Amino acid sequence: MSSVSRRSVLSAGAAGGAIVVAQAAQAAVFGNPDEPPQGAVNAPGESTKVIGPKNPALSDQFPGAFSPPPTDVGELPMFWASFNNAPRRIQDGGWARQVTQYDFQISEEIAGVNMRLTRGGIREMHWHQFAEWAFVTAGVCRITTIDGTGAANVEDVRKGGLWYFPAGLPHSLQGVGEDGCEFVICFDEGRASEFNTLLVTDWFAHTPPDVLAINFAVPAEAFRNIPLHDRYIFQGKMPADLAVDQKQAQANGGEPKLRSSFQLSDLEPVRKTRGGEVRIADSTNFEISKTIAAAQVTIHPGGMREMHWHPNADEWLYIIAGKAEVSVFNTGPNVVTQNFNPGDIGYVKRSFGHYLRNTGDEDLVYLEVFRTDRYAGVSLSEWVTHTPRAMVEQTLNVDAETIAKFPTNRPVVLPV
Question: What is the residue-wise DSSP string for 268-314?
């Protein structure tokens, strides 16, 4: 093929949103850096054809894996998983499904759970050996909890809201919206399991009746009808008004100093651009959340979450709406691109460079979740523009006039 200049390729990329090199491309040129050359653009004819068994419905869903861009190189641990193919535990009153490190090897710091409770459906009283953070994706959930001083509270958390229970503190959940509720839970331990929790019914059933009688100061016969097996999720009756339940639960103990819930959707964006917006909840504004920090990101069609990395924690991401393309960069170099849809989960190790692009025709909305008390990120453009310009010129071989046009204010979300 004829030689392609850096200037002409750059112009084509800026105009079309992607760099396209026709037919058999030269090795080691801008937008096509590998030797030997990689990607379909370097393999005309039969080279890309799959002639063996295939599942087009699946491969079409993952174009980034089926036909990676020529800039991808090497390999990384699989950073895609999904609640969509996770087995559901279905009971009268709702269901739950989970993706933990046992299913998703890279996910060392966060385990994820997706749960639905019907109107009146109850996730029974329980506690964990790890902290629980949750985001409500639909409906309204009533949560109950008590802290180590005996201060209790009851709160209703609606769509776009969060809750957080520190490790070891007991709680319960109930769907109270018109259609109950649905939410995603993150535990601050990758191997944590939603199906391996300390349940109040289990402890009652496996405690001698005479011990129950002494502990609760009533005859042992009072417990003759307790469940002999855990209930986990079950259909319950709708609770009393919130104020009534709060008064009964708090009694003489009062309410905890720190609330267990936080309405993230009511928060003003920390960054809003033509490309989208970002809201952040961590211990600076959701004070009880000492081990989980999170951001809710909205990217408009064609927009992009800028090239960046997180220095203090791995990132667990969850797609709420829309379609995303995620590219991850590590030493080697190793660069892998993958596609995500609603209900999918991603995981990017700390300090790995990455970006997300909205590849659909509607807003991309997703969560970034971190096992840390503070949200932190490093913007590639902010770093480059806050480094002495001569250093950047010599490193990237880009002229000062061009560098002066780079965003300097951490754009976070960029328009197309």
Answer: PPSEEETTEEEEEESTTTSTT-SS-EEEEEEE-TT-EEEEEE-SSS-
Q: How confident is the model at residue 176, as a pLDDT?
A: 98
For residue 227, say if its preceding peptide bond is cis, omega within 30 degrees of 0. no
- Domain match, 256 and 336 both: no
- Structural domain count of the chain: 3
Which candidate, 169, 94, 82, places its Cα nearest to that of 139?
94
pLDDT tens-digit series, residues 193-217: 999 999 999 999 999 999 999 999 9
Query: In terms of domains, do 236 and 286 share one?
Result: no
SS3 per-residue string spanning 338-376: EEECCCEEEEECCCCEEEEEECCCCCEEEEEEECCCCCC
Per-residue pLDDT band for 27 (boundaries 50, 70, 90) equals low
Catalytic residue among 132, 155, 315, 368: 368
Determine the Cα–Cα distance for residues 101 and 104; give it in Å rounded to an integer: 5
Looking at the domain assignment, is residue 82 inside a domain?
A: no
pLDDT at 328 over 90: yes
Per-residue DSSP letter, 220: G
Q: Residue for token digits 């025709």? A: 361
As a whole number of angstroms, the distance between CA 97 and CA 115 comes to 6
Boundaries of domain holding 38: 1-9+16-45
Tell me the two tokens of residue 392: 């950047």
User: Is 368 labeled as catalytic in the residue annotation?
Assistant: yes
